[in-house]
Specification:
Layout: E1 2-5, E2 11-15, E3 18-22, E4 44-46, H1 58-65, E5 68-72, H2 73-80, E6 87-90, E7 95-98, E8 101-107, E9 124-130, E10 133-137, H3 146-153, E11 156-162, H4 171-181, E12 185-189, H5 201-209, E13 214-216, E14 223-225
Bound molecules: nickel (II) ion and manganese (II) ion.
Length: 226
Amino acid sequence: MKLTYYGHSCFGVEVDGTHLLFDPFITPNPKAAAIDVTKIPADYIFVSHGHVDHLADVVDIAKRTGATLISNWEIVEWFGKQGLEKMHPMNLGGAKEFPFGRVKMTAATHSSSMPDGSYGGNPAGFLVETKLGHFYYSGDTALTRNMKLIGDSACLKFAVLCIGDNFTMGPEDAARAADFLEVKDVLGVHYDTFPPIEIDKKQAVRDFADRQVNLHLLEIGASKDF
Ligand code: NI
Ligand code: MN
C-alpha cells in the first residue's frame, strides 16, 4: 500500500489501484501550498468528523473525481445539501464491505461540529482491512483504552495517529496508543499546521522509539510504501 501525505491530517492510500483519501484540508493550509489539489486522485473520501480542518476540500475533490464520501450520518446529510450524491453513511462500531476492503468506523474522543455550526455527529476513526494489509486512522482523538480493542482484533501494518497535542493526543499519548494498537509503524499527523499544535519532532520520534515504534514524519507531498 502506497501512502501519500498531503499535510495536516490529509493522506491518501492506494490499495491495488483504488485511491482512498482521508480528511482533505489542502487549499486553506499554507504549509500545503505546493500541493495541486486538482491532481489528487480519489475513489473514496473519508471524513472523520465535522471540523473544517478535515473537510475543506471535500466538495471540490468529490465533484472532480466522482469519489464516494464515507462519513457519519450527519456529515453525509450535510454534504448532500451541498450537492454531493455518491455517499455512504456509517456510525460508530459499524463495519461494511467495499470493493477495496472492509471499513469499520471506530470511536474517537473529540468533538464534531460542521463549519456552519450545525451538528456534526460523533467524531470517528477508521479501521480499513484490505487484501494487502490492515491500517487504522485515529481521526482527532484523546488516548483511550478502546484502542486496545482494535489492537486485539486486527493485525495492523501501520497506523495514522494525531500527535499535535492541545486539541488531540500529543506524542507521548500517541506512542501509548501505538502500544494499545500493537503497531510498529506510525505516520504522525495533525501537528505543526498551526501554532497551538507545533511540537518538538525529534522528541516525538524519541517518545515512540522508547516503545520500539517507528514514528514516520513525512514531508508534505512525500509518499511511503507500507
Ligand atoms: Ni477536530
Ligand atoms: Mn482537527
